[in-house]
Task: inverse folding
């Protein structure tokens, strides 16, 4: 969306209406991507990351692990964890303030996150993998975008297919880890 229209509710609504139409026409059951936080210090967003971990973590079969091999060599691998703070210390209001606006929007729709942070010094950001079952988009938004609160009910993800995909991904990661240990 062109910069001059980004604050326009009409432009954003049209964008979402177009995405909803595309999802229906192409039977898209799952959408995913990343939400980026500006900076490379996870502690600066400790409340947000911890809040996401405790309140919006995707089920295990939908997890997309951080590929630690892709992190810069000087990034401490321990920094990829999201549960920086204990649940009892997370300030929800501060957590929401720390989040980028697009992520807040995704969460309102019903998005979930995968466990792990990808820290990129090259882009000066921290990425969180975000996914959403289209079928589970909040009914109010389904009606707002399509005119029907049940528009996406037929878009089903088969858990066995997701589990097979997850197992394949885990095997790829295990092979990479073994290869790295040997080198």
Result:
């Amino acid at each position: 969306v062109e910069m001059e229209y980004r604050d326009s509710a009409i432009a954003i609504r049209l964008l979402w209406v177009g995405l909803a139409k595309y999802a229906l026409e192409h039977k898209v059951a799952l959408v995913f991507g990343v939400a980026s936080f500006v900076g490379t210090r996870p502690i600066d967003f400790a409340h947000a990351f911890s809040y996401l971990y405790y309140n919006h973590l995707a089920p295990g079969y939908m997890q997309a692990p951080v590929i630690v091999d892709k992190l810069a060599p000087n990034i401490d691998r321990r920094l990829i964890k999201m549960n920086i703070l204990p649940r009892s210390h997370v300030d929800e209001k501060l957590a929401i303030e720390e989040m980028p606006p697009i992520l807040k929007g995704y969460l309102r729709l019903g998005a979930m996150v995968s466990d792990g942070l990808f820290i990129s010094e090259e882009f000066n950001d921290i990425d969180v993998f975000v996914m959403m079952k289209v079928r589970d988009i909040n009914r109010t938004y389904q009606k707002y975008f399509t005119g029907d609160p049940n528009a996406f009910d037929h878009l089903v993800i088969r858990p066995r297919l997701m589990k097979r995909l997850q197992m394949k991904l885990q095997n790829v990661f295990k092979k990479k880890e073994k290869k790295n240990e040997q080198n």
Summary: The two ends are 45 Å apart (CA to CA). The chain has a mean pLDDT of 85. Strands lie at 30-38, 112-113, 118-120, 125-133.
